[in-house]
């Protein structure tokens, strides 16, 4: 073990010295945060209020929007604070809390998207059995499983990181992430690496592979089905596929930046890539589902006092 120091804070070096531009960036980030809150809260409220939307697909969407609010709150308040602050030190406790919130957001997002793909698979491939399969009990179970599995797995991740001793405290990040924290450790990180691999394999096998299987089966059914069935599949599956790709690209950017040197990239581009998965999906998904899905669009207009037919 190298010489270690008992650090009480980490320093977030990615903020740097941006001078008076910090007020402009603060304004942009504040507007984005409030837009995310309003868009997601509106659709959560509409789905809860409108009884016509108390169907499995919309309840899973509601869970997706709640998770997006949760994840955004893990970043934006601290992001806004550090933009205006002259110091960019973050306590170890808050750093681990931020890691926990952001990682549970990421895993829960993938779980929710996998559950939504399963819902579409049952709806399109087994329409006559759909209501018997997707009962209220199953719906609640799937939503709870998505959340609780993520919270449990990440609790173990954080407990493994809490035992580490560090040789440095400078993170070239806008927020804390576990990979960067573990890289600063002097103590043995083998357990952290093994657990990270286990969680990655587990989530790929339990979310990505089932999602791919669901859409392969949906495609097979659509190729043999009527034009009406194909249109129904297209209307309900397109937003989901776009959400999955959008979030996956954002998460991929974070993984690649953690493992490869990105210092040669322009600072503004690095910043956008750092926060993409926490800004674009929470903004993109409510707008897309609100526009693409007719029942949600009409329900929003009804709640807002507008003519649903316009």
From TrEMBL:
Domain G-protein coupled receptors family 1 profile stretches: 39-289
Name of the protein in its database record: Olfactory receptor 11A1-like
Transmembrane annotation, as ranges: 23-46, 58-84, 90-108, 138-162, 194-216, 237-256, 268-291
Main location as per UniProt: membrane
GO MF entry, a single one: olfactory receptor activity
Gene Ontology terms: cellular component: plasma membrane
Keyword terms of this UniProt record: Cell membrane, Disulfide bond, G-protein coupled receptor, Glycoprotein, Membrane, Olfaction, Receptor, Sensory transduction, Transducer, Transmembrane, Transmembrane helix
InterPro entries with a match to the protein in the record: GPCR1_Superfamily_Member (IPR052921), GPCR_Rhodpsn (IPR000276), GPCR_Rhodpsn_7TM (IPR017452), Olfact_rcpt (IPR000725)
Intracellular or extracellular location(s): Cell membrane
Originating organism: Salvelinus namaycush (Lake trout)
Domain of life: Eukaryota
Xref: Pfam families: 7tm_4 (PF13853)
Topological category with respect to the lipid bilayer: Multi-pass membrane protein
